[in-house]
Amino acid sequence: MNIGIMGTGYVGLVHGAVLSSYGFNVTCMDVDEHKIKQLAAGISPIYEPGLEQLIQRGIESGTLSFTSNAQQVVQTSDVIFIAVGTPSKKDGSADLSYVRSVVQTISNHLNGYKVVVCKSTLPIGSSSRIAEQLNGALQASGASFRVDVASNPEFLRQGQAVSDALSPSRIVIGTNSDAAKQMLQRIYATQIERKVPVLYTNAETAEMVKYAANSFLAVKISFINELALLAEKVGANIDDIAEGMGLDSRISPHFLQAGPGYGGSCFPKDTEAVVDIGKRNGEDLLVVQAAIQANKKQKQKMITKIASRLSFNGKLRGRTVAVWGLSFKPDTDDIRDAPSRDIIQGLVDLGATVKVYCPQGMRQARRLWSELNGAIHYCDSEAESAANADAIVLMTEWAQFRNVDLAAIASNMRGNRAMFDLRNMFAMNTDVQQLFSYYGVGTYSEPKVYSLQEAK
Ligand SMILES: NC(=O)C1=CN([C@@H]2O[C@H](COP(=O)(O)OP(=O)(O)OC[C@H]3O[C@@H](n4cnc5c(N)ncnc54)[C@H](O)[C@@H]3O)[C@@H](O)[C@H]2O)C=CC1
Ligand SMILES: O=C(O)[C@H]1O[C@H](OP(=O)(O)OP(=O)(O)OC[C@H]2O[C@@H](n3ccc(=O)[nH]c3=O)[C@H](O)[C@@H]2O)[C@H](O)[C@@H](O)[C@@H]1O
Predict the structure, then answer these.
(1) Position 452 pLDDT exceeds 80
(2) What H or E segment, with its residue span, contains residue 411?
(3) What is the DSSP secondary-structure string of 43-70?
(4) pTM to 2 decimals?
(5) Residues whose beta carbon lies within 6 Å of some atom of ligand 1
(6) How far is it, in rounded angstroms, from Cα 270 to Cα 275?
(7) Neighbour order of strands in the sheet with 320-324
(8) Which residues of the chain does CATH 3.40.50.720 include?
(9) Which domain of life does the UniProt lineage start with (predicted)?
(10) What is the CB neighbour count within 10 angstroms for residue 167?
């Protein structure tokens, strides 16, 4: 079977590489020619564990190829996956311009029956509208064939995208067409044989499952984050609270890790989009709206907390802060909507000197955060960023932060040597806590009086 993938981002590229490893003939298409050149040379433009090796194996075995020729992909594929981005517009609604463009391209080049599969996260009703558009154009041109359109949302997590695509938690197939359903069953035969649960439903339900899942997870995080703020005030410990809650299987221990607020390319945009979809349909999604508000508050609270411990008169002028981790989570280079961006901006606005280090996120940060370029200093290591700093803000729980020589790092810092551990990585480690004035999230800590001379 020939499979075409439109869009070689986190989803399209990982999906294409995994399907090629099952022996399907996969061609990935992207309008970004630089990306296509890199990919054709076996270089992954994104950092995802195991991805580059999978791409190289696919190229070597001849099952994976890359092109910017849309016509070729459309005409030679039996199944075409749409995996382009659906970012937020200013009003929170999903920007469908990339999807519209790719659908128009498909429409221009259709030469026979195909199954078009929507893998991008799309507002409810989109797949049916795409089917109408494609079949309307075919009918108008007098074509003797139709196409089927299915919704097949993606649930992979960045940082473990390849393993999630190989072993997904579930497969959701939304279509009323038996032919499309059978085609997708063939594509997912390996996972289905391995007993991955499959939900067959209509396209609208499949589209809504995706928004429901992401919104629910965002609600769960905002819930625990708000309770973390309260725990700090009342002398309770949020990690123990999460454990105590999570032992109830109806609640589950997952996604109860308090932190600086959720980020990434999906939770922020998908929660905004589902609220917008609700409004358009006369339903206010109050719980999701509250999760969005609480997430904004959480990031602000982190800035206030750092400032209140480090500042004179509410300002951070004269203070140097090392920020560890820019990516929105570990094992990815993705900095889209990362909480680090808001927190760094807050520190810079208060006058702090900010030195940053991230194992993978700095290349993207230099490129995408150009407005911060003069204001922050990029460092090559944890130690370099923390040298002579008043504080470390641990933003992202990269595993390597556990293995650095924190005693040596602390001895090169100044003042009270604060550590704001916004991921509670060292919340159980009293040795580390003794090296620093340690502040976790949702754990009570005595305010320490700052000992340095007042900064000018
Ligand atoms: N990133 C993630 O972890 C997940 C993303 N999703 C959803 O999957 C979709 C894609 O997300 P990402 O892969 O993160 O996006 P991305 O932004 O990483 O990649 C999108 C790619 O599409 C390409 N593109 C844009 N217009 C095109 C066109 N007309 N023809 C061909 N290619 C075109 C872009 O050049 C880019 O390479 C979104 O709807 C997202 O919500 C779903 C689950 C997980
Ligand atoms: O639609 C998507 O793009 C994807 O969004 C999320 O995946 P991802 O954004 O890669 O990362 P998560 O692990 O879900 O983390 C998202 C954010 O929530 C934060 N988080 C997560 C869990 C937690 O307990 N606490 C917490 O603060 C993370 O630090 C991160 O900023 C979902 O988990 C995927 O199922 C989904 O496919």
Answers:
(1) no
(2) helix 406-411
(3) --SS--TTHHHHHHHHHHHTSEEEES-H
(4) 0.95
(5) 6-12, 29-32, 35, 83-86, 98, 101-102, 120-121, 154, 156, 158, 265-266
(6) 8
(7) 376-378, 353-357, 320-324, 391-394, 418-421, 437-439
(8) 2-201, 202-456
(9) Bacteria
(10) 12
CATH topology of domain 202-456: Rossmann fold (3.40.50)
Question: Rounded to whole angstroms, how far apart are CA atoms 415 and 207?
Answer: 52
- Our answer to whether residue 118 is catalytic in this structure is no
Q: Which CATH architecture has domain 2-201?
A: 3-Layer(aba) Sandwich (3.40)
Task: Report pLDDT digits (tens) over 30-41.
Answer: 999 999 999 999
- φ/ψ of residue 114, rounded to 5: -145, 160
* Tokens at 456, concatenated: 């000018």
Instruction: Tell which residue, 182, 177, 92, has the closest CA to residue 128.
Output: 177
366 annotated to a ligand binding site: no
Pocket test for ligand 2, best of 329, 341, 342 (most atoms within 8 A of CB): 329
Contact 385, 355 (CB under 8 A): yes
Length of the chain measured in residues = 456
The answer for residues whose C-beta is within 8 angstroms of residue 137's C-beta and 6 or more apart is: 107, 110
d(CA 442, CA 236): 7
Euclidean distance between CA atoms 149 and 129, whole angstroms: 9
User: How many Å apart are CA 395 and CA 384, to the nearest integer?
Assistant: 17
- Give the three-state DSSP class for 214: helix
**387-411: pLDDT as tens digits:** 999 999 999 999 999 999 999 999 9
Q: Give the alpha-carbon dihedral of 440, 442, 448, 451, to 10 degrees.
A: 40
Residue 224, both tokens = 């625990």
pLDDT digit string, tens, across residues 185-242: 999 999 999 999 999 999 999 999 999 999 999 999 999 999 999 999 999 999 999 9
* DSSP structure string for 227-276: HHHHHHHHT--HHHHHHHHHTSTTT-STT----S---SSSHHHHHHHHHH
- The fraction of the chain above a pLDDT of 90, given in percent, is 94
Task: Specify the residue with its C-alpha closest to ligand 2, atom 8.
Answer: 157
